[in-house]
Task: inverse folding
């Protein structure tokens, strides 16, 4: 996987973060992501992220669940093994509605969880590397993705001027399992920049 | 920022509402003439008369419960300490001001039906018949004229009084803002207590006894404990739709600056969620009866789901469930003024149909009554709601600007 270069900065306050996001975008930098300990209303809009397609996926899973339930019960109770329950018709739709509902919910729920993990690049035993561990604690961490043309010291100064602290340059492996790291990495020691980084 | 604080009732608005009311009165008169003119046997005359009163009963009860749902919305959000609705809270407040007006009309209709000589709609009012009817005889502690009258009067009185109290509390801040944090806390607590009182009354009336008495007793031999919940869900969805319509109307005319798609989205969510909830209750009531297939229970559904009322029954199911499910599911449609207006109108109509099929199979089992007059009567009530709500809206500023939660509503983000 390609290793990319990022400039990261920490923000303490939403009131500083929002103008910073706007100015960074206007300056033409590419925001890789902003990592926050809790959801911030309106940040997605400010960052210009498109709406997630998770709910569309959920709808498709739900429909699949309904179709599975209706299809299977219909086949089982009208074709394969018709049984007379109290004189009801074999195709007794009202009685099946609860099962259809349950299967809809089950398919939608399980499917959406898996899709969510896929979109967030989460899976069992895959470790996520943080740009800064404080993004799970008390600060908002903004990561700018650098290209060949990015002048990183300029970018760092720019972030600092917008109110960021702990501004640093980091190298991270991108790709599908972003930031998979070696178990031997010491998480909290003062890190040198990865020397073997390829640009 | 220019700020249109007070709603000024436009001339056209008043003309339309008065015209609709006139149309309603004409429809009632026309309906009376058409149901009482023809001859026929004593029995036919009674059924014809019941058809007239049934229409009045359906429309008045439906619109009363719908406008009352506005106050339920206020009290439920107040009790939950919700702040998002503050930007447009004066709208449901104004709608709830219609409760005493339609309440009096409904009471007059209900009492006229219960104490009249025609026992076709409420056949438990026929004391001679009840003596020989084991089921009605057993129920006569609940289904009797005295109890019916007392509960009805008490219900409408309590709704009106507690609603008036809530509105008064809201308006008390307009001229004297809260000075300190302590005062604000006390104000919120005061609101909470009154809202809770209203909700208790609401639970004991709309959510339990009142639909049993007013509507379910039309099919007096049959009963369902779920009936009131189902009626409540029906009117609450319709109530949200009505609030939504007024919000969109005011917004289109340059009022309610602080209300935007975020608030509309949440109203839309209420409409969507309670449409599903309505279906859940409707289906729970239906399925158990369908499954058990006991004759005394299926008497309610056989004329509706399979008999001549089949069309109305399934049409209202499509309007009230399938349409909101598919149309309101998308985020974009809840934030779009046109879609949400269309859905509000559709839902209001759908639940009106729901009430139609609740009322008429009882008094008119052999014929689905002609519905043109019913639309006229319904439009009359719509005009009344428009007229009184418009008046109430113009009396107070559209934003309760001194309420402690206003800021929360202005920056609301869904």
Result:
């Amino acid at each position: 996987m390609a290793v990319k270069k990022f400039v990261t900065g920490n923000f303490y306050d939403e009131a500083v973060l929002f103008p910073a996001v706007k100015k960074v975008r206007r300056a033409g930098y590419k925001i890789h992501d902003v990592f926050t300990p809790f959801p911030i209303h309106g940040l997605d809009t400010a960052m210009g992220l498109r709406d997630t397609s998770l709910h569309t996926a959920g709808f498709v899973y739900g429909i699949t669940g309904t179709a599975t339930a209706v299809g299977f019960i219909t086949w089982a109770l009208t074709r394969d093994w018709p049984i007379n329950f109290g004189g009801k018709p074999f195709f007794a739709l009202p009685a099946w509605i609860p099962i259809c509902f349950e299967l809809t919910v089950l398919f939608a729920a399980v499917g959406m969880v898996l899709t969510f993990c896929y979109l967030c690049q989460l899976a069992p035993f895959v470790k996520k590397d943080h740009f800064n561990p404080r993004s799970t604690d008390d600060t908002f961490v903004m990561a700018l993705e650098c290209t060949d043309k990015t002048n990183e010291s300029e970018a760092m100064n720019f972030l600092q001027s917008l109110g960021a602290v702990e501004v640093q340059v980091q190298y991270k492996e991108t790709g599908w399992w972003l930031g998979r790291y070696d178990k031997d990495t010491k998480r909290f020691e003062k890190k040198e920049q990865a020397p073997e980084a390829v640009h | 920022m220019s700020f249109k604080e007070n709603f000024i009732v436009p001339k056209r608005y008043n003309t339309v509402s008065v015209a609709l009311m006139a149309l309603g009165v004409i429809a009632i008169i026309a309906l009376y003439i058409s149901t009482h003119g023809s001859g026929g046997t004593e029995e036919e005359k009674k059924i014809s008369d019941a058809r007239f009163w049934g229409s009045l009963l359906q429309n008045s009860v439906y619109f009363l419960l719908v406008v009352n749902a506005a106050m339920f919305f206020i009290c439920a959000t107040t009790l939950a300490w919700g702040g998002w609705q503050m930007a447009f809270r004066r709208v449901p407040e104004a709608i709830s001001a219609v409760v005493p007006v339609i309440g009096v009309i409904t009471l007059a209709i209900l009492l006229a039906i219960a104490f009249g000589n025609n026992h076709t709609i409420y056949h438990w009012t026929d004391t001679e018949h009840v003596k020989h009817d084991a089921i009605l005889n057993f129920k006569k502690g609940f289904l009797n004229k005295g109890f019916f009258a007392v509960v009805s009067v008490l219900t409408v009185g309590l709704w009106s009084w507690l609603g008036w109290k809530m509105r008064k509390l809201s308006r008390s801040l307009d001229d004297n803002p809260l000075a300190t944090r302590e005062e604000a806390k006390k104000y919120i607590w005061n609101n909470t207590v009154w809202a809770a009182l209203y909700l208790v009354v609401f639970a004991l009336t709309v959510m339990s006894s009142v639909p049993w008495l007013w509507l379910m007793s039309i099919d007096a031999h049959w009963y369902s404990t779920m009936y009131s919940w189902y009626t409540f869900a029906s009117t609450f969805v319709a109530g949200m739709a009505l609030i939504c319509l007024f919000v969109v109307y005011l917004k289109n005319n340059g009022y309610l600056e602080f209300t935007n798609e975020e608030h509309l989205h949440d109203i839309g969510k209420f409409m969507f969620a309670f449409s599903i909830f309505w279906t859940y209750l409707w289906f729970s009531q239906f399925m158990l009866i369908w499954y058990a297939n006991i004759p005394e229970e299926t008497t309610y559904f056989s004329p509706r789901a399979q008999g001549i009322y089949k069309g109305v029954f399934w049409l209202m199911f499509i309007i009230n469930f399938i349409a909101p499910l598919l149309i309101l599911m998308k985020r974009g449609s809840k934030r779009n003024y046109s879609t949400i207006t269309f859905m509000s109108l559709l839902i209001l109509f759908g639940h009106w149909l729901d009430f139609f099929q609740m009322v008429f199979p009882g008094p008119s089992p052999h014929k689905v009554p002609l519905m043109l007059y019913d639309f006229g009567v319904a439009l009359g009530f719509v005009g009344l709601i428009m007229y009184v709500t418009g008046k109430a809206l113009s009396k107070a500023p559209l934003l309760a600007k001194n309420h402690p939660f206003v800021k929360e509503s202005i920056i609301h983000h869904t």
In short: Chain B has one domain: 11-410. Residues 10 and 259 of chain B are 21 Å apart (CA to CA).
